Amino acid sequence: MLPPDRPALFLAPMQDITDLPFLRVMAACGGADVYVTEYFRVYENSRLDPYILRSVTENPTDRPIIAQMIGQHEGALVQTVNELKKHPVAGIDLNLGCPAPVVYRKDAGGGLLRKPEKIDQLLGALREACGELPFTVKTRVGFESPDEFSHILSIFKKHAIDLLTIHGRTVKERYQTPVHPEKIRQAVEELPCPVIANGNVVNLQSGLTYLEQSKAAGLMIGRGAIRHPWVFAKLRASFLNEEIPTVTGRMILEYVTMLYEETAREHSDFIEHKHVQKMKRYLVYIVQGHVPKFEFAIRRVKTPEEFFSVCREFLDNDDPAPELPPENSKLFCGFSQFL
What we know:
Elements: E1 8-11, H1 20-28, E2 34-36, E3 40-41, H2 50-57, E4 65-70, H3 74-84, E5 91-96, H4 101-104, H5 116-130, E6 135-140, H6 149-157, E7 163-167, H7 181-190, E8 195-198, H8 204-214, E9 218-221, H9 223-227, H10 231-239, H11 249-264, H12 272-286, H13 292-298, H14 304-315
Parallel strand pairs: 1-2, 1-9, 2-4, 3-4, 4-5, 5-6, 6-7, 7-8, 8-9
């Protein structure tokens, strides 16, 4: 699943973002080496979400895709593994990192980090259920404090997980702080499986520095890839000592247009003004680092004509794309530790 001669590049799973049309667009921009689905919500008597499942059955990336689950009901999680094994998944991942309060208050996602004994029980059951299919875990370094990580790591050591991805913040830190690369390095030194570093990769330099400080086997990139999908191509070129691609405003305009068209054609009940609102969810990331007037204007558009008029005004040029987002935004914080 991982490249044998260089660090691996993963696209992070992001709920309501990394769906089938988004995967198509990422692949067209060079893409990651490995993809992970949005999480399948698992609870008693739950069934596989048909739309998320299409990311597996219609995988447009020509790369491996891992199915991610979130939940805390052991029987339902095992049943979901058995259902997912009927489809062409490259592995099955358990989410122990989602920091959304609506999730962790139900003791799912990052909320499970408060219950190490429960994690121990779930990992044992899921490892057995996966059999020879790779079983992976995505976690944070703790719930309240990174001091919790050593105990969490001791539980991971007990189970033959095939890959561990670590978002280098606690659940309570969400996305508003620097990450803790020393915790990822601790996992690299203590676990026999590959460890992937996640969090605060916004450009080529931040990714390279994170790898150097953590000694991870690769990177998982989420928000930084929404803003700048060519981050994968730039990192890959750097690993292979190839020319780093230059990205222009017009290339970003083409990316936005492709996102609009790919997401629109997924919906038979397409309604223009609702689709513009959906596109704003992507654009709030994409505009970061551009002139503030761009974000101000895009937040106020209501029609497709207004949307594309604003995008053309700020992107229809051959100027190099901004290298970095602002570090004082709510979306990107703390990444200067890697610059």
